[in-house]
Amino acid sequence: IFSNLYAQTPDSVKADQKVKVPRFEFSVSGIYAMLETNLRFEDPTGLLGLNINMEEHMGLAKYTIMPVFTGKVNIKSRHSIFAMYYSVPRSSSFVIDQSFEFNGEVIDINTQVDTYFNLNVGSIGYMYDVIRDTNSHLGLFVNFYYLSLKTGISSNQEILNEDIWLKAPLPNIGAEAHYNIGKRFGVSGLISLFFLSFDDVSGSMHTLSTQMDFLLFPWLELGLGYYWFDLNLEVEDNQFTGILDYTYQGPYLGLGFRF
Predict the structure, then answer these.
(1) Nearest CA to 86 among 223, 248, 259?
(2) Distance in angstroms (rounded) separating the CA atoms of residues 18 and 129
(3) Strands 161-180, 100-102: parallel, antiparallel or unpaired by DSSP?
(4) What is the distance of C-alpha 98 from the center of its chain?
(5) In angstroms, what CA-CA distances link 13 with 8, 9, 19, 22, 185?
(6) How many other β-carbons are positioned within 10 Å of the β-carbon of residue 111?
(7) Contacts from 35-38 at CB under 8 Å and sequence distance 24+?
């Protein structure tokens, strides 16, 4: 979240009056995230080899509290740069309660399966404020995500031992809007998306959030909102194609500092 409750200027009735904004903004949020991770492996012919829900079938945690850190620097009247980082590491050692068939082999019931899913996301971008006045704000932005994804499954039968590793800068576009209801209350929202296709990797990512803001002090803001994130990736190698459908969503609470 970013602090968007801008201070009003004494001469705010003028249409061309500049809005006073903080130079630096920083926020830390905690998302109570509900996760859904579906992983498929297909052979080179495109036939389905294995389809797994990693929370239901492999014991990965379905709920977690995810910290998110953001920062923003307003460099000119309508121009700013921003950055974000979060991490979602999960792993599990789980005895499966049903059998699976993979690559012509059967993974028996009561087999111990080790799984992991580690996602690290960093982002840096530029925002231009199309609208910025004492009560409203609309910014368009472009940014680059650095996505580090490592996920895999292995079993003590040595039939299944597959990993997907991906590290790549990913371009993204989006918009952020805010409206002040009063001197201390406001509402805001954000939407962003990207599509990628390079080498043996293709997919898309979408983000959507909405938030209510409350200004506690001139330098401190409380935000309560809801966040939704969806990632779809397809990674090919010589033996298998790994297809990942990963979603998390949930409410969050954050503090925003500005100075």
Answers:
(1) 248
(2) 12
(3) unpaired
(4) 32
(5) 10, 9, 11, 20, 20
(6) 17
(7) 35/60, 35/61, 35/62, 35/63, 35/64, 35/88, 35/90, 35/246, 35/247, 35/248, 36/62, 36/245, 36/246, 36/247, 36/248, 37/117, 37/151, 37/244, 37/245, 37/246, 37/247, 38/244, 38/245, 38/246
Q: Among all chains, which residue has been given the structure tokens 């012509």? A: 104
Count of CA atoms in the C-beta half-sphere (13 A) of 259:
3
Joined together, the tokens standing for residue 225 give 């909102």
pLDDT tens, position by position, 214-253: 999 999 999 999 999 998 888 776 666 778 898 999 999 9
The Cα–Cα gap between 196 and 205 comes to 9
| Cα–Cα distance measured from residue 57 to residue 34, given in angstroms and rounded to the nearest whole number | 16
Which tens digits make up the pLDDT trace of 144-182?
Answer: 888 888 877 777 765 555 566 667 677 889 999 999 998
Contacts of 207 (CB under 8 A, 6+ apart): 174, 190, 191, 192, 193, 227, 228, 229, 230
Residues 6+ apart with CB under 8 A from 138: 129, 130, 131, 132, 175, 176, 177, 178
Q: What is the pTM of this model?
A: 0.83
> Residues in the chain, how many?
259
Q: How far apart are CA 239 and CA 101, in angstroms?
A: 16
Cα diameter, the chain: 75
- CA 176 – CA 180 distance, rounded (Å): 14
Cα distances from 176 to residues 1, 184, 221, in angstroms, run: 10, 19, 17
What pLDDT is recorded for position 47? 53
